[in-house]
Amino acid sequence: MKRWSLICLIFSLLAYDALALKPGPNQIVRFVEPLFRNQLVSTPGADPYSAVGKTEILNIKGKKLWSMKKFIGRHHLSLSPDGATLITTGDFHFGSIVSLNPETVVATIYRKGKTLRVVQLSELITVEPRELAQKLQIQEIGGGYVSEEGFIETTEVDWKKKKLTMKVKTQEIRTFTFP
Fold first, then answer.
1. Measured between alpha carbons, how far is 79 from 29 in angstroms, rounded to an integer?
2. In whole angstroms, what is the distance from residue 98 CA to residue 132 CA?
3. Which of 28, 55, 106, 117 has the most C-beta neighbours closer than 10 Å?
4. Whole-angstrom Cα distance, residue 113 to residue 56?
5. Are strands 173-177 and 163-168 parallel, antiparallel or unpaired?
6. Half-sphere exposure of 165 toward its Cβ, with a 13 Å CA cutoff?
């Protein structure tokens, strides 16, 4: 009987490890802003799981507007019409999921490679993330992650007024300005 219990325990641990979220290696990211056709090209560094790398913003003719020594990962991207401002949302490794840690970064605003604003989950919601996940009946994915769409209903950028607005499923609306 003890042997059978040990075998079950080993299989349980293997199954848990197999179901846990694990990031895949980073790959080159290419993004074209649809209206003004500015482009983003982000290349990972030697470590395929790290944020070390290089991101370049190019105009429609391929001329470099600016760059930064950072790989942007699998974030969702918004690029301003003039190509000077980049907003990333979501998770670096997984894109459209978010950690239940209150300090999780849900948005970062860059201007010509410099970080202007970092928005944490605790700035977006007024209750503890796990509580809200339970209240909204959001299924937790391995390792304390949930679908970003479970928390965030909409994300809008007003480039003229320089505002990022995020609406949470609880109908709370948060607006973050940037210079």
1. 14
2. 13
3. 106
4. 9
5. antiparallel
6. 12
- Would strands 76-79 and 85-89 be described as parallel, antiparallel, or unpaired? antiparallel
Q: How far apart are CA 117 and CA 91, in angstroms?
A: 16
Identify the residue whose tokens are 């042997």.
3
Q: Give CA 24 to chain center in angstroms.
A: 15
pTM of the prediction?
A: 0.81
The count of other CB atoms within 10 Å of the CB of residue 12 is 10
**pLDDT tens figures, 119-153:** 999 999 888 888 888 888 888 887 788 888 878 88
Beta strands in 15-61, from DSSP E residues, in sequence order: 29-32, 39-44, 53-58
H runs (alpha helix) in 23-124: 121-124
Q: Which helix (H) or strand (E) holds 115?
A: strand 114-120
Provide the Cα torsion 134, 107, 46, 32; round to 10°. 120
CA–centroid distance for 110 within its chain: 14
Q: Cα–Cα distance between 5 and 83 in angstroms, integer?
A: 60
Alpha-carbon distance of 69 to 55, in angstroms, equals 6
Alpha-carbon distances, residue 29 vs 43, 56, 66, 143, 178 (angstroms): 7, 10, 16, 25, 25
* Spatial contact of 117 and 125, defined as CB atoms under 8 Å apart: no
